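hi!! sorry for the late reply, been swamped w classes. u asked for the two structures so here they r. pasted raw, havent cleaned anything up. first the sequence of the first protein and right below it the tokens
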Amino acid sequence: MVDNKIKLKENEEFIRLDAMLKMLGVFETGGQAKIAIQNGYVRVNGEICTMRGKKMRKGDTAEFDGKTFEVC
């Protein structure tokens, strides 16, 4: 199941892009997320992002396969 929002914990400032996509169920493994990101298939805030460790903060969005995911 894929949810489209991930909520940061109270003490969290950010979540890594690859971890976010794995936690949301977009990819089954972190390795799959890493490959998709490094191959330029993921957009962050509308721009292609190839950094799997990109820090995603509240309000940031990631897009993959026509779906948008948001950090809140």
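now the second protein. again sequence first, tokens right under
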Amino acid sequence: MKDEHSWHFVAVEEHRVIGCVVLFPIDSEGHKAQLMQMAVESELQGKGIGKLLVNELLKFCNTQGIKEVVCHSRENAVQFYLQMGFEVYDEPFVEVGIPHSHMRLFL
């Protein structure tokens, strides 16, 4: 629903999309953005594709002057984001019936 104002990053293997993530700017100064809709094909999870996507997204943020990236992480993905340098902040919450944590990374 925010596609027209977002940047999209995709991982492709043999002409097939195997992972994706969306970055949406959330402040008028362009210094803060939200990582959204992170997904990797289930049979390929754990092979570093998600890390590659997030690393490319963070490199892009540096070129754009984005200083903070936030995300709503499902509880089962919190460890992934912690390993990528994100931190948990604020209280856990439920979104679409699933427990989530607020996470952020300052660049």
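hope this helps!! also noticed smth abt the second:
The mean pLDDT is 95.
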